[in-house]
Every structure is written in C-alpha cells, then in structure tokens.
Amino acid sequence: MSAAAEALVIVDVQSDFCPGGALAVAGGDEVIAPINELACGFPFVVATRDWHPPDHDSFAAQGGPWPAHCVRGSAGAQLHPLLDANVIDVVVDKGTERGREGYSGFERTELERILRAAGVRRVHVAGLALDYCVKETALDARRAGFDVVLHRGATRAVERVPGDGERALAALEAAGVEIAA
Ligand SMILES: [Zn+2]
Questions:
Q1: How far is the CA of 3 from the centre of ligand 1 (A)?
Q2: How far does the centroid of ligand 1 lie from the alpha carbon of residue 58, in Å?
Q3: What is the reported pLDDT for 48?
C-alpha cells in the first residue's frame, strides 16, 4: 500500500471566503483550526485555490451570482494566513478560465493526476464552501472513482438559499460520500 493512499483536499480556505473577505462565509475561519489538526494526520495534503481572472463570468459585473472574489494574485485570493502552510504538499488553482465556473477542484485542473500519481485512493475533503466548491469537489472525486470522506466539522456553507448546506450533505451522501464529524 502506498504511504499516500489517503489524502486530504483542503478546498478554498482563502482570505476572501473568511470574515472580512469579499465573499465571506459565515464562520469560514472556524474551519482553519480543525483543518490544521486534520492535516497533520495525512501523508499527502492538497490545497485548492479559487483563482479567477478579474473579469470572471461568476462575478456580478459579468452578470454572475457573486461579488468579485479571489482574483488571481490578489491578497484576498491567498490561502488564509492561519492555515498551516507547512503541511500542504501541493496547491491547485481552479476557476482560472473566465467562462468556466470552476467550483470543483477537479474541473480542468491537474488534481486527479496529482492524486493518482501519489497513489491516493481515498480522498478526504474539507474547506469552503460546503454548498458549492466543497460539494462539487467531493462529487467529482466520487465520479473519478475515489472513496470520499467529507469532514462536516471542517466546512461551512454559504447558504445563499437557507438549507443549502443540509441539501449539499444529502446530495453527497446520496453519491456515496461518507460524512465524518
Ligand atoms: Zn469563485
């Protein structure tokens, strides 16, 4: 068995998604301590970043649903400073194309190849936000054939529509994702 049969994928724990950021998720920074703790137990850790061009289609100025956020290279797009950078093996940028939403860390990125090259079979997912990028990343991991575990206590939802967080958990369970505390 490869030493890295299990990996943690930390989704979008970036300043813009935490309180004070451009698209703050309520309690977004509360995922940081549990993620730092979790990450120590994994032989392989990947962090994704939402990394948009300034005119990304998801932004309100382009008719999209979100305020401008995580513009590539900006302060708000950086991984949150309290996230322990020492435990992160690889950073994967997503949402880099103007016309593609890029919620999933697997969407037109090297993530699947990176995980397979590391011998990973079981992917643990945490981060922001549960009802968008965490959900889509976990679903794509399932579609790619990985066993997937969602760490519920290490994620928070945006809840654009109240109940989206619970609906995301139900969709993940229905897709065969194991929900852990
Ligand atoms: Zn985004």
A1: 33
A2: 7
A3: 98
Q: What is the pTM of this model?
A: 0.97
Please state, in angstroms and rounded to a whole number, the distance separating the CA atoms of residues 142 and 172: 9
**At which residue do the structure tokens 């990304």 appear?**
56
Output the DSSP codes for 71-108.
BTTSGGGSBPTTS-GGG--EEEEE--STT----STTTT
Instruction: Tell me what pLDDT residue 3 has.
Output: 55
- Ligand 1 ion: Cβ-proximal residues, 5 Å cutoff: 50
CA distance 65 to 56: 11
The full DSSP string for 125-180 is EEEE-IIIIIHHHHHHHHHTT-EEEEEEEEEE---SSTTHHHHHHHHHHHTTPEEE
